[in-house]
């Protein structure tokens, strides 16, 4: 029996590895570009997840292991839930630790069982014919196909060379060699446009932030404060260089939709990152940027080659806003 179990586990691993498509994710961190693929991480987890699924497969109470098909995790009224289905959902789990894999596989399988029961009832009631359901299914299909094409296009991106990684490291000292962790005080002040220069001058003349806050209170300005600790890579990309030039105790005024945001550097500490430590993140960032650019250029080329017609109320604004992306005509 142990030999049979090992055979089933081996076949399950192979089946799972063949059934896991890539996907993408978004993040605002400069090293986590919206085009960052999660497929490499998923491949890292494949052996673990396949083994966890195999545990589900061969661990049923009172079920003879040699009678369970190698790719079946469960049957619901005769309909199979397969290992590729289970592994696909496992692949989407973020931050899954090795010791959690088996438990997660069982929990996800139970959710898939509940889902299959609901699907069977939906089929019985012919819900797939409802207009809203038809539209949702079509939208999901279009999203999956479009994403698959864009991911395939992004795969043409070349990995950065060691020289390119070194140059990026040298060009961004605020992120690496001179990296700091900032203790920041933020004050969001509601103000009219004509009041902004006055606030800026008052902040510059104040000897301490408390004096500026007293001025805001006396002037009956509405404001709210916040304090945070952020590393260099967690700051807005456009503001990083300005923060790097600031000394402890200094403040700057940043425009905000309803007034200004006063940012005070209450303190900071040096926490540099060596090139060796930064290399994986730099490589991933450069690769992600190349993928993003490939996809962006490809979509522009597709638009340029296509005949796109905007109709009715969408004709005029769409034609003008999309003019730089490609030709458009009104219908």
Question: How would you describe the overall organization of this protein?
Answer:
The chain has 331 residues and is an alpha+beta fold. Among the domains are: 123 residues, no CATH class; 91 residues, Chitinase A, domain 3, CATH 3.10.50.40. 51% of the residues lie in helices and 16% in strands. The protein has eleven helices and eight strands. Strands 4-3-6-5 form a four-stranded antiparallel beta sheet. Strands 1-2 form a two-stranded antiparallel ribbon. Helix 2 crosses helix 4 and helix 5 packs across helix 10.
Low-confidence runs? 1-65
Round the Cα radius of gyration to an integer and report it: 28 Å
- Percent of residues in helical segments? 40-55%
User: Averaged pLDDT, please?
Assistant: 81
**Count, helices:** 11
The helix-and-strand class reads alpha+beta
Q: What characteristic shape results from the CA principal axes? A: extended
Elements, N to C (H/E) = HHEEHHHHEHHEHEEHEHE
For the terminal residues, how far apart are their CA atoms?
70 Å
Kindly estimate the percentage of residues that lie in beta strands according to DSSP. Answer: 15-25%
In which order are the strands of the major sheet placed? 4-3-6-5
Largest sheet: 4 strands, antiparallel
How many strand units?
8
